[in-house]
Every structure is written in C-alpha cells, then in structure tokens.
Amino acid sequence: MSKGRFGKYGGQYVSEILMQALIELEEAFEKIYPTQEFQREFTELLRDYGGRPTPLYHAKNFSKVVGFKVYLKREDLLCGGSHKLNNTLGQALLAKKMGKKRLITETAAGQHGLATVMAGNICGLETEIFMGVKDIQRQASNVKKMKLLGAKIRPIKTGSGVLKDAVSETLREWASCSRTTHYLMGSAVGPHPFPTIVATFQSAIGQEIKQQILEKEDRLPDAIIACGSGGSNAIGAFKPFIDNAEVRLYFVEGGGEDLNAENSAAAFQLGRPGVLHGSLMQVLQDEHGQIRPSKTRAAGLNYPGRGPEISHLCEIGRVKPCYAFDNEVFEAVKIMCRTEGLIPALETAHAIAYVLNHPEEFSSDEIVVINFSGRGDKDIETILRHFYGA
Ligand SMILES: *Cc1c(COP(=O)(O)O)cnc(C)c1O
What we know:
This protein is α/β, with parallel strands linked by helices. It has two domains: about 5-45 and about 85-190, Rossmann fold; about 50-80 and about 200-390, Rossmann fold (3-Layer(aba) Sandwich). It has 16 helices and 15 strands. Strands 3-4-15-9-10-14 form a six-stranded mixed sheet, sandwiched between helices. A four-stranded parallel sheet has the order 7-6-5-8, with helices on both faces. Helix 4 (about 85-95) crosses helix 9 (about 195-200). The longest helix has 17 residues, at about 15-30. It is globular. Bound molecules: pyridoxal-5'-phosphate. Pyridoxal-5'-phosphate (PLP) binds near residues 82, 84 and 348.
C-alpha cells in the first residue's frame, strides 16, 4: 500500500504550497513519535492530565434492556468530556517539539476546539479556533469556555457557516503560516499524514479496550460499536482489533431526520467516493460532485466526509456502516439516562441507538462494547427542548 493510502482512499489532494508543510509534518511524526522521550511525555500527559486509562464499565441495567452484555468505554471521563483530548495532546506535543509557536484548528460542537486550547496551554502554544458562525451560535457554552482558556475565535461566514467551511478556511490559513503554526486536525480526515497521526493518537482507546476486556472476560468482545463522522473515536477503538476477524465492528453515522440527502449526514448510505479537504473519501455530494452539506442534530457528526481509513474498511466489508435517526438518538439518550444515570453526548447516543434498535445483530451470549465517546452536558438544552418543548 502506498503511503497515506487506504485502498484507493486518502492521498494528498492539496495545492503545491501546502506540500512542504505536509512533508515536514510527516517527517517530524516519523522521527519524533517513536522516541522514548515523546512516548514517556505523551503517556504521562494522558494519564495524569487526561485521566487515562478510562474505565471499561459493565452497564448491567442497560444490558438487561437489550438482552446481552454491554460494556461502555468511558471516554466521557477523559478530561474535557470526550475522546478529543487523546489527539490534541499528541499533536500539541508534536508541534512543540517541531518548534511551532501556534496552533490553529476548526471546531463544530466546540469539543475539539476546547481540547485544542487545553493542549495548547499545556504545551505553551497560542491557539486560534476557526468556527462557522452558525456553530458559534449553537454552541455558546463551549465558545465561552474556549475564550476563558485564552483561545482566539475566528468566525467563518463563508459557505454555510459550518464545520466544512471552517476546515477549508483553516487549510487556507495554514498555507500562509505553516513555518510557525501547526494545523491541529480534529478528526481522522484531511491530507496524509493527518489521518494516520490522528488514528495513532486515538488508538489508545482500542488498546485499553483490548487489555481491559481480556482482564474482565478473558476473551475479546463480539462487537464494538462507535459513532462517527470523520471517524477518529471509531478508528481509535477499532484499530487494535482490525486483524481480529471475529470481532465485528460497527460505524454509526448521523441518519438525520430520514434517509434523504436534504435531511441526513449518512455519507455511507447517500454519498460516494470524492475529494474533500485534501483526501479521497466517502463523501456526500450532488450529481456534479459538489459537496452537499450534511444534516443531523449532533453537531459533531455534521460533516459530509468519512475518513479514508474508515471509508476503506467499510468498502472491504471489515467495518459495517450503519446509521441512527435523530428520533432514535433522543430515545437512546433517555434510556441511557434512566438505566445507568449517564447523559451521553448526542453523537455517542447514535451508537447506543443502534444497539437498542438492532437486536437481530446480537445474541444473548454476546459481549458488546459501545465506545462512549463523550458526555452530554453540551447538549442538555437541545435534549430538553426535544422532550419538553421550548
Ligand atoms: C467530535 C465528536 C464525535 C465525532 O468525531 P469523530 O472524529 O468522528 O470521532 C463523536 N462523539 C463526540 C462526543 C464528539 O465530541
């Protein structure tokens, strides 16, 4: 397999001026990541600042509801409330060792922006966050937190004023300042080497799942379920299991209101391969190849592309692409709240909803791991509005 390719997916579809920055980043990652010094500092940050390892929790009450044994990988307990920090700590540390002074990135729900400024502060790097104007309105509480932590917020008005537009603007900015600035990519997307770097840092999730389930059950799980758009929490959970063919892997994307291109984010159902943000991947597009905006109530799943590795794993049948509709997702939030006293992020609730609504996929003697990618504090208003109006 050629560098940065997953089957036909991936690659570096970028303008000439970005190539130098990508080559520098690839070389730095290959040189710095394997060193003992980097490994020691990264592991220490994940443990003492982030709170790793996160628990693998046997959700007994939820298991009773579905009729098989369910474990939750508690990424909601990682500092910041989602899996995002695994990646931002890794990249910020790398940027610091590359001599960069500043981080730029984009964010939708604000979880990645928040995790970036946290990591930036630890590593002594300035942080600037590009955010669609629509997302700034929708995610006021995370915007306040990012400002409090000292991040500069750059409002993006182009396009539809959402995540895909912010990514385009960040890539444009990076082309002009990559000598001093690292683009801290938020998911397993973008041109090579980003998808590989992000998957590497996030695979702490899957490595822990493997070790923890062997300790608790003395065998591997039958299935792992993860939600996703770009796919960083999913590929992080899946990667150490890809060669364990007996472990079924499910990727749950945002079905939105229904499976209609106007109302959905289900790129594996409604999209086809195309180039977005420097990479060939599965992507929502119209008949002319123009990117279609995605639609889902979960801001973190509202991206029209699927990372190249997940795109490939779905194409070859190793990962099953699935979706959950908004209505099912809100019901799943309620059931998780009532059975386990945990409020999942709307993104995470897609994985929970899939398990609840597809009993035919699992039998009573099976062990299923749901990657609990984040907590729902950021979504409380949306959830309450859904159930109780106004
Ligand atoms: C950002 C986010 C996601 C989606 O991002 P991926 O890169 O596709 O994993 C999922 N869950 C939560 C809680 C998030 O914050």
